Amino acid sequence: MPRFSWRHDPSVPAFPDDQPVIVFDGVCVLCSGFVRFVVARDRACQFRFIAAQSLIGAALFRHLGLDPVNYESNLLIADGKVSAKMDAFTGIMWRLGGIWRSARVVGLLPGWVADRVYEAIARNRYRVFGRRDQCVRPDASWRDRVIE
Length: 148
Fold this sequence. Notes:
By secondary structure, the chain is of the alpha+beta class.
């Protein structure tokens, strides 16, 4: 996918992408918990967040050829590129810095193995971790970093 390709798609509303953006399933307890994990460790406040259920999130999923209803991957938009599945996870952890960079060890696995592990977790996340009736509501510590 070309860098910044979503900018040229009129079906994707414009949004600030000058900082890393995490697109996440806002009703998934695991996914929103991961976002809270990132917020708590993102001392530089570098990440912004988009719920997959939002207008922008759904448009991005459609643009990327992903299911805009059954979100089976968080996305990382950074440096003009989109990462999904385990690449998104390791990219996020790398950008958090410090000890969290050690999550890159997952990169030693062949990509297809890492993605299968991610897919298994994604497929079972609601059953194991739960699902909310509506998107997570950010608290004051990260509300201004949510793109709607």
